[in-house]
Amino acid sequence: MKILIASSKYYPEYSGSGYRAHQTYKRLEKKFGIDFDVITNSMTYVGNKNFLHGNKKVLRISSPFLIPKKKSIKRKLLICLEFIWEIFFTWIYIKKNINKYDLLHTFGNSWSIGFLTWYFSKNNKPIIRELCNKMKNPFYPIQFDKSIKKIFLSKKTLIVAISKMLEKVVKAHGSFNLWTRLNPISDKFFIDYKNKLYLRKKLTKFEDTDIILSCVANYIPRKNQIFLIDVLKGLPPEFKLLLAGPLKRENQNYLNEIKNKIKFLNLTERVEILTGFVSNFDEFIKLSDVFLFPSIEEGLGTPIIEAQACGVPVVSNYLKDIVEDILIKGEGGAYSKLDKSEWIKNILEVHDLSKQKLINNAKKINSISSSKVIDQIYYNKILNLIN
User: How does pLDDT run across 56-108, given as a tens digit for each residue?
Assistant: First the structure.
């Protein structure tokens, strides 16, 4: 059995959807022998490239055109050229290789993904579309949403929604073969209180007696790390803040805003900022006393689940149709709107949650979102679609 993964981004360019695609199929390969190749696009790299990630073939199709953000005739022209580039090179590849693949599994949105969806359908091959981010229309490209919608009315297709919010979006557009599930969490996310202090010394500048609040995410305005600086100012001095995550060049100004606010509020000694790809996300959670999730919007909020699986309490922004399903107040943490006073109160309260309560909550989380359970369901659904 061989699957073609189509992801809008993929290693080494970080994205949540690309990360989930890779992790899911590495597990399915190990457990069930499923082989896969990858077609991806990029917002960082310019030009097409064939390469290996591990032992997996990856084709990155990325136009050489730098599209300006400001609306103009030039921008429209370059978007048209980008469309032609992605469709043409995707077609060149898939017309030669379509018979190699039993199924297409898409993550994210791109011209290539839209074209591959149409091409696999035309060749009567099954398709899984995984919805990973907040959206109003599950069918992409939206210019051809009616055609794409018809494809997903077929029994040879499956839509995967990773939250109740995305489930509602799909159901608002019709009746489809739909599976709603939590993102599976890997075996790395488990309670490891005994190594907490060791990980602090390894990864941070903070002391054993400090109360560490952590937020691990891309440095982009939507992740809203800057809000946490004001929150930290209202907490006692033993509370420290650790920020870590990838930084793209175009978001350097946002990081500078964060640093300027830290300096203005005299919090330099209480904040540590780390930039770069985080391959050991589980370790950053395990060294923490409280995990913070201030994102303005999300498709699911998998880190909320992963932190709880490690027995670390979470304070999250109230994300409608998401957070209520994955975070029980008083057991795994708390959530509220982005109000500084409310967040200070929540952090102080969840820090005092008993260890036994956090352990019990971690067991519940693992029972519904462990990769062992979800991977078996995945495999069964893939077999049903192919057969």
Answer: 999 999 999 888 888 889 999 999 999 999 999 999 999 999 999 999 999 98
Encoded tokens for 230: 């004001």
For 382, other C-beta atoms within 10 Å of its C-beta total 21
**Mean per-residue pLDDT, 32-39:** 96
**Whole-angstrom Cα distance, residue 379 to residue 372?**
11
Residue 222 has pLDDT above 90, yes or no: yes
**Assigned superfamily of 2-184+370-386:** Glycogen Phosphorylase B; (3.40.50.2000)
Q: Answer yes or no: are the C-beta atoms of 215 and 287 closer than 8 Å.
A: no
Cα–Cα–Cα angle for 234, 237, 242, rounded to 5 degrees:
85
Q: What is the largest CA-CA distance in the chain?
A: 63
- Which CATH code fits 193-369? 3.40.50.2000
The strands making up 333-336's β-sheet, listed across from edge to edge, are: 271-275, 239-245, 211-216, 290-293, 314-317, 333-336
Same fold, 2-184+370-386 and 193-369: yes
**Beta-strand runs (E) in 279-381:** 290-293, 314-317, 333-336
| pLDDT given for residue 299 in this prediction | 67
Specify the residue for token string 């949650």.
353
Q: Return d(Cα 2, Cα 33) in angstroms, integer.
A: 9
Q: What residues does each domain of the chain span?
A: 2-184+370-386, 193-369
Per-residue pLDDT tens digits for 124-179:
999 999 988 778 888 877 777 788 888 988 889 999 998 888 888 899 988 899 99
Q: Cα–Cα distances in Å, from 172 out to 127, 316, 355?
A: 21, 27, 42
pLDDT of residue 199: 96
User: Before 141, cis peptide (omega within 30)?
Assistant: yes
